[in-house]
Structures are given as structure tokens and as C-alpha cells.
Amino acid sequence: MCSTPGPHTTGWWFRLGRRRRAARPTTSPAVPTDVLASSIRSCVSIHNHSMSDLDHARHSSRTVTSARLGNACIVTQMNRIDARSWSSLVLLGCAAFAYNTSESFPVGLLPEMSRDLGVTEPQIGSLLTLYAVVVAVTVLPLVIAASGIARRRLILVTIGVLVASNLAMALAPTYELVLVSRLVSATTHGIFWSIVAPTAAMLVARGREGFATSVAFMGSSLAMVAGTPLMAALGTMWGWRTAVTVLAGVAALAFVGLALVMPKLEVVRDDQARGLAGWLPLLVSTVSNRALLRLCALTVLLVVTYFAVYTYISLILDRSADVSGPGLAGVLLAYGIAGLLGVWMIGKFLDASPRRSALVTMWVLTVALAGIGLFSSWAPAGVVASVVLLGAAFAATPVFLQASVLRVAPETSDVASSLYVVAFQIGIAGGSLLGGLAVDASLLEAVPWIAAGAVAVAVIVLTLRTRTSARTMEDATAG
Fold first, then answer.
1. Co-location of 44 and 179 in the same domain
2. In terms of CB atoms within 10 Å, which end of the chain has fewer, N or C?
3. Alpha-carbon distance 468 to 10, whole Å?
4. How far is it, in rounded angstroms, from Cα 4 to Cα 408?
């Protein structure tokens, strides 16, 4: 059932720091019994090697250090991923890149799309808002309805819809048809992101699920930090319709590749047998997880503040730093490179210090947002630097949020991930809507300040919760 706070903890934020330490084994990791039999022969063969070969095997990069030779052999077997699975994981990453880039690309093509379609820039921004609304509303019912479909078939259907909708958008003569095309792909967006991690895990042996998921999710990270800059560059050179056509081509390549190499993945029997009557209690139990709800609330806050600024970042750079056209593509490229650095940095420190990594990330996000507001009227270079810093901070944000979801709801991760997707999409819709209202009211310059203040309040509250929870645990332990 869902993870709920114990008597000596006060919620997900405190457990974010303690769960990792509590779960760390003091001896060699336990080995799944179904892997043991398949590994015995390899273990015996390693015993026949010389001592130097044995030492080399123990320190191989594909082996987890173990005090016992048997465990080292078994982990070696678990760490082997065949070429077909590798190809499938990489192609899933390409599909993830296409989906996330398709969602957010209007941000970098706001002026071009506005001029071509004959509508206002806030109307183009609403393409992002309405997309997120559709995802948030449809993800849970559609995931439940599609639970009886084989994963391979469902993955291909969602990617196929993405290809068709992007091609229709590139050919659409009016704003209304562009909007309809985007909303069609939005209906499959939530399904794709709810099943991509479990699908990746099904492609590898037990014990390699985390690695498989990280490979597939790399496409999402690349989309967040590089997708929009690339679309902006293509749109500037050859027009936004050409950029969307190229994006459809990337998704089509992922579709064809997965159709050729991805193995058949049967329906998970628990999902097939559960049905609507079984899903409802699971959903209710997950929603009752107060730690998860607080985490979703934080997700909404962080995403709203970011997208209120980011949706109209091209306008901010144009008005405050006189950056447009090729210059805008260059700034967004730097933004993307900084985002990759941010993902790498938090990935390096998150496991060892999850709470500190989260707090530092949110403080950097606060500084970046405040910098955009501070330098907007007198220092164009400061605005550009703050935008680049914003890329590093926010690219790292979903990493610690998703890791927190898995920590607070390990036994209902599928439903919890769906709720996280809903929270994220509500944040996108809310942020882009608020940003659009600020543009209409000629208050865009105030948005970075308001966003920075909201994130700063959240960081201070979480810091105080951390200290209070630590004192509570110390008192309980002493008592």
C-alpha cells in the first residue's frame, strides 16, 4: 500500500534524507533467487582463472564490489544488457526527446508562429497552457483504460500519434488547426510518460531497472535543455513549420526503430486483472499519502514559477537584453548546455545527499529568477547570465522531484508517477497562463520577482521542516 509517515517522522522531506541512509546495506546486497541458478556456471568458471584474472574481474567496471565471489559473479550476469535491449532503450530516449520537445517548442518560436498564424503572442503561449491542461485531465483515466494493452503496442501507438499530430501541425493553415493538432498529441503524452519507465525496466534483468530508466529518461533531460534551443535555431533559419516537420521525423525514426528491434512485452498480469474496480482502491490509497501530496504541491509551485517566466523568455530577452533571432538561438543553446551541466551535477550528489541537493537546486533557481528581475532594466548581460543559470537550476529540479516520488511511494510507484505527471502539467498550465496574463497587463517585468519570492519562501519552509524533523527524531531516539 502507500507509504505513510511513521510515528517519528513528519513527512516526505525528512524521509528524503533518512531513507537513503536507512536502506543502505551493511553487507553484500541480497541476490534474487531467480538470477542465482543462471549465474552458477559463470561463478565456477571464474574460480578456474588465475589470481590476477580474479582481481581484474572483481574490479571490473561492470561489477559491483562484493566481499564474496559469488555475489560478484551474479551481479556481473545481471549487468549484461543485450544489444536489442540497448537499442530499445536508446530509441525510447529518442521518443522521450521528441515528446518533451513537442510540448515546449512554442517557447522558442513565439514571434515566428505569432507572425505566421496572425495571432498574438499570448495566444501562442496558450498552446502550451492548453496542452498541459489536456494532459493533466486525461492522464489517469487513459492510463487506467489502457492498462490491458501490451506495453510494446501501447508505446508504438503513442509515438505514432505524436508523429501524425506534428505533421498535421506543420501543414495546418490556421491557429485553430494547430491547436487541435497539439491537443491530439496531448492525449497520449500522459500515457507515454506513465509507462516509459516500467517499459524500460522490463527490457533488462532484475537489478538493472534504475540504469534502464535513466537511459530512457536521458531523452527527457536533453529535450528540456536542448530541444527548445534546437527548434528555435531551425525555426529561425527555415521557419517553424520546417522545425516541426524535423521533429516529426525524429519521432518517426524512433517509431520505426522500436517496431523493428523492441521485443514483445506482455501485459503485466496484475494490471490486466485489476480492472477499474481494482484501480480505484489503489488510486484512493495513493492519494491519501500526505507525503506524496505535499511533494506534488511543491512540484506545482516550482513548475508554475518557472513556466511563468520561461514561456515568455523570448520576450524577456528581446525587451531586456535586445536579444532576438540568431542571438536568441545562441542564448537558448547556452541555456541548454547549462541544463546538461545541472543534470550532471545533481546526478552526482543526489544519492549521497538528497535533501541538500534539493535545497541547493531551489536556492539556485531563486537566484536565477531574481537575477532576471534585477538586471532587466540596466544590465543586459546580467539578464542573459541569469537565464543561463535558470537553465541549470530547472533542469536539475525534475530529477530530485521524481526521485522523491519513488522514495515516498515505493509500493504504488505507477499511480504516484501519474499523480506527479498531473502536478507537473498543472504547473505548466498555471505558469504559462499567469505569464500570459502578465504580458496582457504589461506586467511581465514583475513576474521574475514574484517567482523568485515564491521559491524562496518554499526553500525557507523546507529548511525549517528539516531542522524540526531532525530534532524530533533525536528527541525520540534519546527517549
1. no
2. C
3. 9
4. 8
